[in-house]
């Protein structure tokens, strides 16, 4: 529980930030932008952010992992698209790089193959150019795309 500081403006900024963070996880950068739109002084915003960080309510590393897992599992994005998505959300580049380093190429390969089976119902119907274009748009590297296409077209029997 975060205790009131006695400073009315600081308590207001902290409360507004907490209400926003209850709705969805946010990065330090985005919470600062949000508070700035509420006409809160920059020094008060910085103090409020420090209080939230000290209470582990605001943690960019954790938020990067949460968003990364969501985008990788539900949207099945590859590393390149995932990196762009996380950075556009406001994740620090260092946290994004650390998260991407934890991803295995097997997971990427499985997601890529899963997208292929969803897009092309039968392995015999795979148009190589369309598959490469579709998967590269999803953020997968060319090597993983080639492996996934080969695995999908050679190992499936219909």
Radius of gyration: 21 Å
Query: Average pLDDT across residues?
Result: 91
* Shape category: elongated
Number of domains: 3
| Beta strand count | 0
Number of helices: 9
Strand content: under 5%
Helix/sheet category: mainly alpha
* Element-level helix/strand string: HHHHHHHHH
**pLDDT under 50 segments (min length 5)?**
none
Helix percentage: over 70%
Biggest sheet record: none
Distance between the termini: 58 Å
Key traits:
158 residues; mainly alpha; 9 helices
Describe this structure in words.
This protein has 158 residues and is mainly alpha-helical. It folds into 3 domains: 8-58; 61-102; 105-155, no CATH class. Helices cover 72% and strands 0% of the residues. It has 9 helices and no strands. The protein has helices at residues 8-23, 28-37, 42-54, 60-73, 79-89, 93-102, 105-119, 128-137, 142-155. Helix 4 (60-73) crosses helix 6. The termini are far apart.
What's the gist of this structure?
With 158 residues, the protein is mostly helical.
List the helices and strands and how they pair.
Layout: H1 8-23, H2 28-37, H3 42-54, H4 60-73, H5 79-89, H6 93-102, H7 105-119, H8 128-137, H9 142-155
